DNA sequence: CGCGCGATTGATTCGGCTCAATAACTGTGG
DNA sequence: CCACAGTTATTGAGCCGAATCAATCGCGCG
C-alpha cells in the first residue's frame, strides 16, 4: 500500500467530514489532522487489516466499501458489519488497547486516510464534542450488535435474509436503476446472514418468485421493501 | 424501589471502586459523586430497567447479579450478558442518546447506586482518565459482541454451551464447594446460549456423563474446564 | 473462445426444535 | 416441620429447517 500526504484532499474540505466523527473538530485541529494523516489505497479483495493484530492508528474511509469480519472456528468468515466512505475503522482496538477483534477487506477499490492514534488521544483530551461523538458512535454500535445477537439466536434464516437485504439498502443505497449499490457474492451474503451459501440462493430466488426482489446476476433490486420488513419481522 | 443516600457506603470507600470505571476519579470528583448518587434495591426477579425506555442516569451495581437481555420477535428473552458488583449498566444508552437496547433484571437481591447522567457528562469533560476508561470498557464490549455473533452463527449448540459454562465460571467464580456462584434456570442458560431449554438439559447431562461437570439441582460444578475448552472450541 | 469461479438446483442427512408426558424441586403457608 | 401448588427439570418421540454433498450451469474475464 502506498502512503502519501498529497493524494487525497485535506481534511478541512473532505466531503465526508461533516457526517463523520470529525464533524466537530476545530479549524486548528483539522489542520493538525491533515498534517498528521497519510493516505493509502487498497484494491478490491485486499485486506486493510487482520484480527488479532494491532494498528498504530485508525483508518478513515475516503471512498470504497469494506467488509468487517471475523474468522470462525472452522476458518469460515463471519461478516459482522460493513463500512463505507466517512466511516472510521479500527478505532475500537485502539481505544480498548486490545488486538483487533475483526478483519477488514476491500469490497471494491478503496482509498483511506490513516490517522495516528496519538492524534486521537490528543484530540480526545481537548475536544469534548469529539469525545462525545466518538462515544456515541461506539455505544450505538453496541446496541446494533445486541440486535444482531438476538436475531441470530431467534430468527430463521429466511427472516434474517430479508432483514439483511434491508440493511444493505440502508447502508449502501441504490443506483439509478434501483439496484443495491454494493456487489457481494452469494457467499458473502451468506456470511453476513449467518447461513450456508445454498440457503441464500434458494431464499433469494424464493423472494424473487414472490416479487419482493429482482435479480440480475449479482445485482439485487428491492421491489417491495415493506414486504421484506414483514417477512423479516423487522420492527425498528 | 426505595432510593436513599445513606443506605450504601460513600463512593470514596466503596470496595468496588478501584475495579470500576470510577477507579481514576479524583478526591473531589468522588465527593461530588457521593453527593449526587442515590441508592436503590431490587428483589430477585425485578426489572431494573426495560429496553426502549430511557433513564436519567446509570446504575452502579453494589451487590447482586443481573441479566441483561433483549426480547426477540416472539417475545423470547435473549440474554446478551451478565453484570455484577462493580459494573456500571445503562450507560450506553446515555452516551449514544438512544433508548435502551436491552432490559436488565435481578438474578438475586440487588443493591445499586444511581448516578445522574449530568455527573457522567461533567466528569467526561474534565477527567481524561475517566473518559479513557469508559471508552476502554465500551470498546471491549464491542469486541466481545463480535465474538458472540461469530459463535452464534458458526458454532453448534454443544460448543456454545461448553463455552457458556466457562464464561459463567469466569464471570461469577465458584463457591467453596466449587459450584458456579450463580443460580440460573435451565431456561436462562438456554436463553444465553441461544437454544431451546430441552437442548441445554440434554447436553448438560451429556457433559455430566462425560465427567466434565457435576450437577446438583440447579447448581453446576465444573470438573474439567480444559475439556470444556476443547469441546467448545474456545481459543482465547 | 475457453477456462474457472461463482451460482444454481436437487437429493439427502441431521442437529436441534417442538410437543407431550412425567418427575423433581422450590418456596409458601398452615 | 410438613403438605401442597406451582414451577422447573427431565425424558422421549417425531418433525423440520437448514446444512451438506454432488452435479451442472453460466457468466465474467483473460
How would the blueprint of this fold be written?
Two copies of one chain form a homodimer.
Chain A: E1 3-4, H1 27-36, E2 38-42, E3 47-49, E4 57-63, E5 65-71, E6 77-84, E7 88-89, H2 91-96, E8 103-106, E9 110-116, H3 117-126, H4 128-154, H5 157-172, H6 186-193, H7 197-209, E10 213-216, E11 219-222, H8 225-231
Antiparallel strand pairs in A: 1-2, 2-9, 3-8, 4-7, 4-9, 5-6, 5-8, 10-11
Helix pairs in contact in A: 5-6, 5-8, 6-7
Chain A binds a DNA duplex (30 and 30 nucleotides) through residues 156-158, 185-187, 195-199, 201-202, 205, 217-218.
Explain how this protein is built.
The structure is a homodimer of 236-residue chains. The first copy, chain A, has 236 residues and is an alpha+beta fold. Chain A is 41% helix and 22% strand. Chain A is built from 8 helices and 11 strands. The longest helix of chain A has 27 residues, at 128-154. Chain A is elongated, with a radius of gyration of 19 Å. Chains A and B meet through α2, α3 and α4 of A and α2, α3 and α4 of B. The structure holds a DNA duplex (30 and 30 nucleotides).
Which spans of chain A of ≥5 residues are poorly predicted at pLDDT below 50? none
- CA radius of gyration of chain A is 19 Å
Order of helices and strands of chain A: EHEEEEEEHEEHHHHHEEH
Structural class of chain A: alpha+beta
Chains forming the largest contact: A-B, 49 and 49 residues
Provide the helix percentage of chain A: 40-55%
* Average pLDDT rating of chain A: 94
- Name the overall outline of chain A: elongated
> How many helices of chain A in DSSP terms?
8
DSSP strand (E) fraction of chain A?
Answer: 15-25%
End-to-end C-alpha gap of chain A: 40 Å
Strand arrangement across the biggest beta sheet of chain A: 1-2-9-4-7
Oligomerization state:
homodimer
